[in-house]
UniProtKB/TrEMBL annotation:
InterPro entries: EF-G-like_DII, EFG_III/V, G_TR_CS, P-loop_NTPase, PrfC, RF3_C, RF3_dom_3_sf, RF3_GTP-bd. Residues 9-278 form the Tr-type G domain. It is found in: Cytoplasm. The lineage of its organism: Bacteria, Pseudomonadati, Pseudomonadota, Gammaproteobacteria, Lysobacterales. It comes from Luteimonas salinilitoris. Increases the formation of ribosomal termination complexes and stimulates activities of RF-1 and RF-2. It binds guanine nucleotides and has strong preference for UGA stop codons. It may interact directly with the ribosome. The stimulation of RF-1 and RF-2 is significantly reduced by GTP and GDP, but not by GMP. Transmembrane segments: none annotated. Belongs to the TRAFAC class translation factor GTPase superfamily. Classic translation factor GTPase family. PrfC subfamily. Keywords: Cytoplasm, GTP-binding, Nucleotide-binding, Protein biosynthesis. This is Peptide chain release factor 3. GTP binds at residues 18-25, 86-90, 140-143. It holds the Pfam family GTP_EFTU. SUPFAM superfamilies: EF-G C-terminal domain-like (SSF54980), P-loop containing nucleoside triphosphate hydrolases (SSF52540), Translation proteins (SSF50447).
Length: 528
């Protein structure tokens, strides 16, 4: 096997999906801790520790208690290289989350044991299903009273329609939580709050029948769990790696992220069984991670990631070959060779220059506006990776600037923020104002906040008489020119320079489409 194929085989690239508050941030921190990526356990939400998880960089996030941005965290564990791609938790950022999910090979689903399967989890699961993404499940907060474990498995199977294969099983719950039993090894790991930082710290018994264990936790609770396990084994499924890899079964773990309990058992199992990079469809053909020629696609763009580095970073998932410092790559959309020699990697909370990157890894390419979401980079072959979703904005606002002298900064800010893909901005042909389109209302608040924080521009948003946007295309240049003149009042230019019809009402749009049969009115900007 070539070096890069061997490197690809030890990559584990995944994202955590959950409903807000289930414990994603806490679990992320514990995984980083086990991976040696951070040294200090401390709430990610308390910002006093210098080494907080990178997912939390924005002040806004602290204020609102939501994850607004995504980031990438890489750490070595047990001979593997783990890439954890963070996803924003709030529903208004689902578009961003969907794109992150196109860049991972598997997912980890976190469920609150008291709340069970929640609404966001259901939506994210649907997205994972589109690509048959393998999913592991962590049922969290076992230190609190929750639903019965059997009931939780039943809920996952019923609501999410995926068979469960429990790998660990809790002994008690809430104040009676004693530990978990590993159903494949038989080992019992005791729950000792404040003492489970590493495997060595936690007391382990060889099996449920160990007399020393009965002495420690009492025979009664062990009898209870043994009886329960008979039921579980009858009602659930044994772990089947093929089914898991096909997205047809989810291995389930129980634990308490905040107490570091059950997390390492999950991580050990994860690095062993979760899939390495898979071949990917690039329209003309399928690209295998074993191919030596470099290829990858951009799934996310972020402006001003780090206040110390005011730049725009394009996040590229490597699909084949390897990235080396000083290298160049072919930017398929523009047909140009591009220097990507100073790409970034994301070792936990620090950005550094990428040494090498292999399939499954993510690199950050410095970008001055030429790279767009879904762009493919190759060693020269004109390929296009497929399946990166694009959504039309559903809400529109007119941007009002407090200080007219800041117009240039406003343009710059809106252009750069719209490159991230969460919002789109339009300049009407006939008016001097600007229209911003978004999927969710929270995005307007985020844009207003970031304009002020990152570009020093104070802007407010007012209702705009626009219900939907259509990108106008035509083979017939004459018809397009005529339309441009006649419909100018409703036409605008988007951040990429494309012509867009901003429809004031649905009826108006329908009439315009009927009147201009030679034109195409497209509901999404094509990501290609
Ligand atoms: P996120 O919104 O999914 O990222 O959730 P967080 O990780 O921020 O957790 C939400 C809340 O649940 C926080 O107050 C955590 O301290 C708490 N939490 C996380 N894990 C546990 C756990 O295992 N037990 C208990 N009791 N609370 C937890």
């Amino acid at each position: 096997m070539s070096t890069h194929a061997a490197e690809a085989a030890r990559r584990r690239t995944f994202a955590i999906i959950s409903h807000p508050d289930a414990g994603k941030t806490t679990l992320t921190e514990k995984l980083l801790l086990f991976g040696g990526a951070i040294r200090q356990a401390g709430s990610v939400k308390s910002r006093k520790s210098a080494k907080h998880a990178t997912s939390d960089w924005m002040t806004l996030e602290k204020e609102r208690g939501i994850s607004v941005t995504s980031s990438v965290m890489q750490f070595p564990y047990d001979g593997r290289i783990v890439n954890l791609l963070d996803t924003p938790g709030h529903a208004d950022f689902s578009e961003d989350t969907y794109r992150v999910l196109t860049a991972v090979d598997s997912a980890l689903m976190v469920i609150d044991c008291a709340k069970g399967v929640e609404e966001r989890t259901i939506k994210l699961m649907e997205v994972c299903r589109l690509r048959d993404t393998p999913i592991m499940t962590f049922i969290n907060k076992l230190d609190r009273e929750g639903k019965y474990p059997i009931e939780l498995l039943d809920e996952v199977e019923r609501v999410l329609d995926i068979p469960c294969a429990p790998i660990t099983w809790p002994i008690g719950m809430g104040s009676r939580l004693k530990g978990v039993v590993h159903l494949l090894t038989g080992e019992v790991h005791l729950f000792e709050p404040g003492k489970n930082l590493t495997r060595q710290d936690s007391t382990i018994y060889a099996s449920l029948d160990d007399p020393a264990l009965a002495q420690r936790v009492g025979a009664e609770v062990l009898n209870e769990v043994s009886e329960e396990l008979v039921l579980v084994q009858g009602a659930s499924h044994p772990f089947d790696r093929e089914l898991y890899l096909a997205g047809l079964q989810t291995p389930v773990f129980f634990g308490s992220a905040v107490n570091n309990f059950g997390v390492q058992l999950l991580l050990d199992f994860f690095v062993e069984h979760a899939p390495p990079p898979k071949p990917r469809d690039a329209s003309a053909r399928v690209i295998s991670p074993d191919e030596s020629a470099f290829s990858g696609f951009v799934f996310k763009i972020q402006a001003n990631m780090d206040p110390l580095h005011r730049d725009r970073v394009a996040f590229l998932r490597v699909c084949s070959g390897s990235y080396e410092p000083g290298g160049k790559a072919y930017h398929v959309r523009t047909g140009k060779e591009m220097r990507i020699g100073d790409a970034l990697t994301f070792m936990a909370s620090e950005r550094g220059l990428a040494e090498y990157a292999y399939p499954g890894d993510v690199i950050g390419i410095h970008n001055h506006g030429t790279i767009a979401i879904a762009d493919t980079f190759t060693a020269g072959e004109p390929l296009q990776f497929t399946g990166i979703p694009s959504f039309a904005p559903e809400l529109f606002r007119r941007v009002r600037l407090r200080d007219p002298l800041r117009l240039k900064q406003l343009h710059k800010g809106l252009t750069q923020l719209s490159e991230e893909g969460a919002t789109q901005f339009f300049r009407p042909l006939l008016a001097n104002d600007l229209i911003l389109g978004a999927i969710g209302t929270l995005q307007f608040e985020v844009v207003a906040y970031r304009l002020k924080d990152e570009y020093g521009v104070e802007a407010t948003f007012e209702p705009a008489q626009v219900v939907t946007a259509r990108w106008v295309k035509a083979e017939d240049g004459g018809a397009l020119e005529e339309f441009r003149e006649k419909a100018a009042i409703h036409l605008a230019i988007d951040a990429t320079g494309a012509l867009v019809y901003l429809a004031p009402t649905r009826v108006n749009l329908q009439m315009v489409q009927e009147r201009w049969p030679k034109l195409r009115f497209e509901a999404t900007r094509e990501h290609a």
